[in-house]
Design brief:
By secondary structure, the protein is an alpha/beta fold. It contains 6 helices and 7 strands.
């Protein structure tokens, strides 16, 4: 039986690139987003191209009820989870002192609480896999604040803290935990920016880096992956 990867926010950008990479390596997928049509298309494409199964669940995991629905869907499949990728996220540009009311809550809910509640919700099945690995998609903003990053930076600093705490807690169980910190990645988030694609990281590069970290022997773990554009941050 194939190994299983759970990916949140898998319908576009980095999440979709990760789904494609894992599928190409023969990993069955359990994925979620808020758009049924997107999920159905991904399922059809990946199952047609690879000898895998793709299980899809529509859920808004910025809400605790949505995380529970996705967790229940995963647990009902009753399969060990070899890889969990907490990728769901959102970016609302603005400065702390004048960003719209609710910007902090929205980004904490999506960028932090979704990872916290999903990990807790499925950890029993993660523990069933012999060499399980959890990836938390953080950001360069987890290390350094940037102008206009406002509450996004707060949420991503917190996600890195969650990842570090989880790593320490699961260390005795030999469950690996990796924080992934990409810089500006060429996704829909950067639509309309007057810069060439070559100025950005490719989402495929992020996915390949995650696969490389996962492929290490059981005796080694990459705790943090920091990826920046060759020409520096944008």
């Amino acid at each position: 039986m194939n190994k299983v990867a759970v990916i949140s926010g898998a319908s576009k950008g980095i999440g979709l690139a990760i789904a494609n990479k894992f599928a190409s390596e023969g990993i069955d997928l359990i994925i979620t987003s808020r758009n049924q049509d997107d999920l159905n298309e991904i399922k059809l494409d990946l199952e047609a191209a690879h000898n895998i199964s793709v299980h899809v669940c529509v859920a808004d995991i910025s809400q605790k009820e949505g995380v529970k629905a996705f967790s229940d869907f995963i647990n009902d499949l009753n399969r060990p989870i070899d890889i969990l990728v907490n990728n769901a996220g959102t970016f609302l540009q603005g400065n702390l002192l004048d960003e719209p009311e609710g910007a902090l809550e929205t980004q904490i809910d999506t960028n932090l609480y979704s990872a916290y509640h999903l990990t807790r919700g499925v950890i029993a099945n993660v523990r069933k896999a012999p060499q399980a690995h959890i990836f938390n998609i953080c950001s360069i903003a987890s290390l350094q604040a940037y102008s206009g990053s406002g509450s996004y930076t707060i949420s991503k600093f917190a996600l890195l803290g969650f990842s570090k705490s989880l790593r320490a807690e699961l260390l005795p169980e030999k469950i690996k935990v990796t924080a992934v910190l990409p810089g500006a990645t060429f996704t829909s988030s950067w639509e309309g920016v007057d810069l060439p694609e070559s100025r950005f990281i490719s989402a495929i590069d992020v996915a390949d880096s995650i696969w490389s970290a996962y492929s290490l022997s059981p005796s080694a773990v990459v705790e943090e992956i920091v990826i920046r554009p060759t020409e520096g941050d944008i």
